[in-house]
Write a structure and sequence with these properties.
By secondary structure, this protein is mainly beta. The protein has three domains: 102 residues, Phage tail proteins - horseshoe like beta roll fold (Roll); 78 residues, Phage tail protein beta-alpha-beta fold (3-Layer(bab) Sandwich); 125 residues, no CATH class. It has four helices and 23 strands. A hairpin with a 5-residue loop joins β17 and β18. α3 packs antiparallel against α4.
């Protein structure tokens, strides 16, 4: 069972940041590697099935390199991190959806807009036919192969069985929706992988602890978000009309930390602070960084998992509310 990790040696790594940007074609071994030029990045990831997005600004590329980045089907892999820890870790990969160059003399700046799995979701058409008794895991494996996105799937995933078989022709996205909806699962693309987990639950990857001595910046802020729905009501004229109404609320926490490239939506975080202590799920996050200036930070939106992984519920202590560290696995008792 995966545990958590805790990193306490914070100060030295603040001044030893490293990155690698690899550019090339999917499935090709050759490409470009950028390590010394100034780059700025902003990465947004969510647990939703829409592709995660990233924008990268690269300073003073050669003209020939800029031309390579503008070619169709160009893919980028961005690694970032701290030299004295695990080094540069994969923080985002995706295809270039838009590229342009602008001149802010004396600098020439190339900007890239990227989508994680955007082309695979958009372009993959599935044609399958299965005999009686086919299981959802087999369908998911076949979809991932045709999309070219490795599948990450917990061992205890609920199975759906089609007693009369299954035939389908259409987009991969629609088939994924069909399979996961009937099995109480959710899917998303994370760093080029098709991630499927129980709806509202967490991945089996090792979690992190966030505290004042392991990367937490400032204090967690309590958030309450309303998901709006619609309903029909009768007005004064007795005519029906549709109005917006909050369908449900969920409580969560907004936290800032040093850059956490290893964290993805669906992962679990153990939050330790004066405001709140407990196990949470990463619902969405944003990485920001500049290789030559400012701080590298990760902003996370944390929510309670649908079913807690431990008997320890989130305990708020009231009020508004340096890298994650590993915990012994016996601190967490999975149900």
């Amino acid at each position: 069972m995966p545990g958590y990790f805790r990193i306490t040696d914070i100060l030295p790594v603040l001044f030893d940041r490293v990155y690698r940007l690899l550019v090339g074609k999917k499935g090709k071994s050759e490409g470009l590697e950028i390590t010394e030029l100034r780059i700025q990045f902003e990465i947004t990831k969510t647990a939703k099935k829409d592709p995660n997005k990233s924008s990268i600004r690269i300073y003073n590329l050669r003209k020939e390199t800029r031309a390579e980045l503008e070619k169709p089907d160009t893919r980028c892999l961005l690694y970032a991190g701290y030299k004295d820890e695990a080094g540069a870790l994969l923080i985002f990969q995706g295809g270039v959806t838009f590229s342009w160059t602008k001149y802010e003399l004396p600098d020439v700046i190339t900007e890239l807009e990227l989508g994680d799995g955007a082309a695979e979701i958009r372009d993959t058409t599935i044609s399958v036919g299965y005999d009686k008794g086919v299981k959802s895991t087999q369908v998911l494996n076949d979809v991932s192969k045709q999309m070219g996105t490795p599948l990450t799937l917990p061992k205890d995933i609920p199975e759906r069985i089609w007693q009369n078989g299954l035939s389908y022709f259409g987009s991969a996205r629609t088939l994924l929706d069909k399979v996961t909806k009937g099995s109480e699962l959710e899917w998303s693309i994370q760093n080029g992988n098709l991630q499927v987990i129980k709806k509202g639950m967490v991945t089996t990857r090792q979690g992190i602890v966030l505290s004042a001595d392991s990367g937490l910046i400032g204090f967690p802020e309590h958030e309450r978000k309303a998901n709006e729905g619609t309903t029909e009501v009768k007005g004064a004229d007795k005519k029906k009309k549709t109005v917006s109404t909050p369908a449900k609320h969920y409580d969560g926490w907004s936290v800032n930390s040093l850059l956490m490239p290893e964290v993805n939506p669906g992962d679990r975080v153990k939050l330790e602070s004066r405001a709140v202590n407990g196990i949470f799920r990463v619902q969405e996050l944003k990485h920001k960084g500049d290789s030559h200036d400012g701080d590298w930070q990760t902003e996370m939106k944390l929510i309670d998992p649908a079913a807690p992984l431990t008997e320890e519920k989130s305990k708020s202590k009231g009020g508004t509310h340096s890298r994650g560290k590993p915990i012994d696995e016996d601190e967490v008792e999975e149900k």
